[in-house]
């Protein structure tokens, strides 16, 4: 089978894309948290302020609660998982020919840059203008690009895993 046939038979469809998307979202969300913690510490700021800002953006009444920081991280991770699932679904449905190619990570990272632009230039200035000032645009954009690379890595691993499984099945069928 040619490479296009393998690619077409290994990309994710419909419900099959959500587990990989969830893992990609977890990886991307964790990359963002790690980056923000490192960045905030390097510039002498408290990293918990960003998590509290997330809580304030979503559930403003809980921003002063003792659990505001872990709640902010939890909210961030839930949103990251949802974002990973959406990206996995969109790429597999709208652009199936790029799955497993060098274009897939480019599209994933560019999609995350678009998400960053909407969040930081449109949504957050309306719902929580203070949040936008917590981390400079460059550092927050870097966090979203890291999300994109982490998610793209998960998608690439999933594609290779599926391709290897398909190859094993073809070989088993050929032996029989």
Describe this structure in words.
The structure is a single chain. This protein is mainly alpha-helical. It has seven helices and no strands. The protein has helices at 3-10, 17-42, 48-58, 68-94, 103-127, 129-132, 137-175. The longest helix is centred in the last third of the chain and has 39 residues, at 137-175. The chain is elongated and about 60 Å long. The model is unreliable at 1-12 (pLDDT under 50).
Task: Give a short summary of the structure.
This protein has helices at residues 3-10, 17-42, 48-58, 68-94, 103-127, 129-132, 137-175. By secondary structure, the protein is an all-alpha fold.
Specify the helix fraction band: over 70%
Low-confidence stretches: 1-12
Gross morphology is: elongated
**Into which percentage range does the β-strand content fall?**
under 5%
> Main beta sheet, described?
none
Radius of gyration: 19 Å
Number of domains: 1
* N- and C-termini, Cα separation: 18 Å
- The overall pLDDT average reads 88
Please report the number of helical segments: 7
- Order of helices and strands, N to C? HHHHHHH
- How many β-strands, per DSSP? 0
Oligomer: single chain
Q: Structural class of the helix and strand makeup? A: mainly alpha
